[in-house]
Amino acid sequence: MTSPNPRDHAAPDPDPHEDRRGLLVLRPSPAERLDFRVSLTGTAHCAIDAAPAPATPPVAVTPPVAVTMTVTYVPDRTVLDPAAVPAYMAALETTVWPGLEALGVAILDDMNNEVVPRWLRVSLRAGAQAVDLVDSQPGWIDRRGLTVLPASAPSAPSARAEGS
């Protein structure tokens, strides 16, 4: 008879994104039946490893750079509290990112998992580089043209609703 392996009953490893995602404070959408667009902007100083070596963890090779993030989304059942943006951006500063694209994917995943919008665009700019990522719920159709409106660019962490 073999002794039981304690790992067989161990709790699963915590989600490494849980702490960061927990900073995204949500409120009920004021109008679930309507499509409208919200834009939130913030800035973080993130360490971006421009050329990570294969199979090694990223190492900051440059000092942190200012990254401007704009998250634009069409909410479904919840909206993100704009007051949560600064703390969320600060949490992004605690990781060395293997590229601006990886940072964008992390933000997109966080927003999709917590806010669950109908449509989402994450735009990042750091120096001369810009990255845009877009996702939407399956089957959602933009009947009002909200996804093709010019980007809103609030100057400070804020929210702006458009459409209806």
Structural notes for this entry:
The chain has 164 residues and is α+β, with helices and mostly antiparallel strands. It has helices at 18-21, 85-92, 100-114, and strands at residues 26-28, 37-48, 65-74, 78-80, 96-97, 119-126, 129-136, 159-162. The strands form two sheets. Strands 2, 3, 5, 6, 7 and 8 form a six-stranded mixed sheet that branches. A two-stranded antiparallel ribbon has the order 1-4. A hairpin with a 2-residue loop joins strand 6 and strand 7. The longest helix has 15 residues, at 100-114. The termini are far apart.
Topology:
Elements: H1 18-21, E1 26-28, E2 37-48, E3 65-74, E4 78-80, H2 85-92, E5 96-97, H3 100-114, E6 119-126, E7 129-136, E8 159-162
Parallel strand pairs: 2-5
Antiparallel strand pairs: 1-4, 2-3, 2-8, 3-6, 6-7
How is the CATH topology named?
A: GTP Cyclohydrolase I, domain 2
| Helix count from the secondary structure assignment | 3
Main beta-sheet annotation: 6 strands, mixed
Mean pLDDT: 83
| Count of domains | 1
Q: How far is it from the N-terminal to the C-terminal residue, by CA?
A: 67 Å
Order of helices and strands: HEEEEHEHEEE
The CATH class label is Alpha Beta
**In CATH terms, what is the architecture?**
2-Layer Sandwich
Low-confidence stretches: 153-160
Q: Indicate the structural class.
A: alpha+beta
Oligomer: single chain
The CATH superfamily is identified as GTP cyclohydrolase I, C-terminal domain/NADPH-dependent 7-cyano-7-deazaguanine reductase, N-terminal domain
Q: Please tell me what the overall shape is.
A: globular
- The total count of strands amounts to 8
Task: Give the radius of gyration.
Answer: 18 Å
Report the helical percentage: 10-25%
- Strand fraction band? 25-35%
Region (Disordered): 1-21
